[in-house]
Amino acid sequence: MSRDARWKALLELLVERGRLDVEEAAAELAVSAATIRRDFDQLAEQQMLVRTRGGAVVHGVSYELPLRYKTARRASEKQRIATAVADLVAPGEAVGLTGGTTTTEVARALAVRGDLATGSPALTVVTNALNIANELAVRPQFKIVVTGGVARPQSYELIGPLADGVLGQIRLDVAVLGVVAFDVVQGAAAHDEAEAAINRLLCERAERVVVAADSSKLGQRAFARICPAHLVDTLVTDTAVDPEAVRRFEEAGIRVVAV
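^ thats the sequence. predicted structure below, dont judge the formating
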């Protein structure tokens, strides 16, 4: 197992359990305890975990796994969700995309749609996510608008007041939100308050709002609210969603698409 794969596995286990012992992690990954100790030390230097005697714990109360380590989690669900979200976008529309692994897949699904291969522009994409802008910038038929701001290394998103100037001057047909939590009562939420603020502005500029979230994020709550549930028009999720959760969202006036 490569170091990057090992680090990704360690961080995912840590997020799931909150705490890991060296011996436990070594057994899970079938490597030596010495290797795990080195991994923990190096990850602690990057402030991605906190070292403890004999192990490690998550870094802080509101821990967020950096985007580059989340790409493989629920990958098949995210790809199905992304395809369904992309199908909700009409040629020529202006689309806002927040950062995140699911919205990155939405960008990729839009990029391969045959009916968006030509146009002037075929689509206008507004995003605060540097990785999404980078992937779509090679598509000459897409008009890419990137908000200003300061780059947030965990999610590659631009945050801060510099984005207000751009977002205050535009109108979107649809905003696609990647979220860490979506609840009927608490609404859509993110870990970081500055990230949530930019996502909120995208919602306010859009005619309709789509939340793209796998079922593990539904009914969950996070630190910073993006928007209340009643501002969301459509939720696209996977088929593992709890039927009771679907009923609650639909009663709140949200169309639910499970794929």
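The chain has nine helices and 15 strands.
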